[in-house]
């Protein structure tokens, strides 16, 4: 029993001698705490002490960091994470470190995807090291509210672009390290309008292969002349080249669009975009396959236009058009809906099953119009015929009364001396009408013969030819 008592006493003495409750895997001094090391595992959360000013998380394997990971580090001024993989950096993970001055997260596999938008927002830090990570873009808001930040190291990431105004409120910034990234163009628009006196940040861009394809935006403006002076480059001959057009990032006209296409029809997709230099377009198919400048039958990327010769219903889905140039990337989403083409038997029965209102009315009105036209033409024709007949009748009547109706049948009218030959016609006189009637019928080769009711030919009956012969005599 006494044995136990002395042990407990020893423990209490040891405890009181300790500067603080050091977390299991950490080595703690009065002010610094170095965790992990050979153990390579970190017991979370890491609990500190109000007097600790420095924390080094070295070789801690991999773990996510959120606002509960570091506790009781109210005096911490410097935090370094090294040889460790931060799986995810959640919102405000350093929220409980009001005294933090230096945050060193060099080479911890940070990417845009593995980081909350507000991971650093609002921190009072003066130095932030994010070198050798996997960031590819700096978005607006990522460094919002870092009013005291003087030194920002983003070297050795895969950075291609910084959004305009993304560094606008870093009013204390003195040095920005962007070495060894993938910048192709640069612009002072990153900083927005700088409301400073004469302390402008030095921007180091060594190890970026800047392009000469286009003029860097804003470099020639007088209010941004500080930028041209502050930038450290291996060569800078293309910053302000009046000969070329200003660079501009790709912009798509429609971010999302639904396109309906019929089954078995050809499909051509293009995305309306702007940007200089002219963006290269790749297509991401619903399967996830990305078509760069090549084809994957039946999908053909022909100079930025996606072509499918024959659409099938299984091709429906979300297509993404990705436009990229030196300034950035823009995406347009096209939702392709494939509607089935109705088959022929269905078409024939269509008026019964689903009468579409347009075609019947069109054909009906057309038919009515046609019939009206036909009837009108008939009426006009009849009227004309009637008129001709009337005129002809009147004319004939007039001429027959004057006994010169045979003028027409006489080839040589100057010989015609009908009055000189009166004897041969008297009994024919009454038959004139018959002769004329047959002529009117256009039947002048076959002479018409008037029949008597008893069927016998009248004795005085003469054919027209006979008549003509007589008149010619
Ligand atoms: C913190 O430091 C002060 C003096 O600097 C000391 O009195 C106090 O005991 C320390 N606290 C702990 C938890 O070590
Ligand atoms: C140290 O840890 C023990 C239990 O593990 C706890 O009772 C004690 O309050 C802690 N001391 C400090 C200063 O956090
Ligand atoms: C740690 O603090 C104790 C008193 O709390 C002090 O005696 C000791 O010298 C300090 N150690 C160092 C390295 O500062
Ligand atoms: C920590 O984060 C959680 C959600 O991630 C949130 O609900 C909570 O309020 C945060 N705590 C502090 C102190 O910020
Ligand atoms: C953290 O510190 C507070 C006092 O500042 C104390 O009450 C609390 O127990 C500590 N938490 C841990 C886990 O040691
Ligand atoms: C930050 O940490 C890395 C190791 O991860 C180290 O090489 C570098 O010197 C540190 N930077 C500063 C300013 O302490
Ligand atoms: C680093 O992160 C990337 C994704 O951002 C992941 O694919 C990769 O496996 C990570 N590396 C390690 C060593 O975990
Ligand atoms: C100029 O700089 C000084 C010192 O940094 C600062 O106090 C002052 O407010 C600045 N003036 C303007 C107009 O920004
Ligand atoms: C910069 O210099 C490298 C070689 O040192 C050269 O290949 C490149 O074209 C130059 N770029 C510009 C923009 O002058
Ligand atoms: C696509 O490739 C062809 C040859 O393979 C080339 O002529 C053409 O310029 C390329 N187009 C783009 C936009 O890269």
TrEMBL record:
Listed transmembrane segments: 368-389
Signal among keywords: yes
InterPro entries the UniProt entry points to: Ig-like_dom, Ig-like_dom_sf, Ig-like_fold, Ig_sub, Ig_sub2, Leu-rich_rpt, Leu-rich_rpt_typical-subtyp, LRR_dom_sf
SUPFAM superfamilies: Immunoglobulin, L domain-like
Compositional bias of kind Basic and acidic residues: 437-454
Secretion signal, residue range per the UniProt entry: 1-19
Region of interest: Disordered: 437-473
Source domain of life: Eukaryota
Chain ranges of the Ig-like domain: 250-332
UniProt-listed SMART domains: IG, IGc2, LRR_TYP
Lipid biosynthesis is among the record's keywords: no
Keywords associated with the record: Disulfide bond, Leucine-rich repeat, Membrane, Repeat, Signal, Transmembrane, Transmembrane helix
Record-linked Gene3D superfamilies: Immunoglobulins, Ribonuclease Inhibitor
PANTHER family reported in the protein's UniProt record: IG(IMMUNOGLOBULIN) AND LRR(LEUCINE RICH REPEAT) DOMAINS, TIR DOMAIN-CONTAINING PROTEIN
Full protein name: Leucine-rich repeat-containing protein 24-like
Annotated organism of origin: Acipenser oxyrinchus oxyrinchus
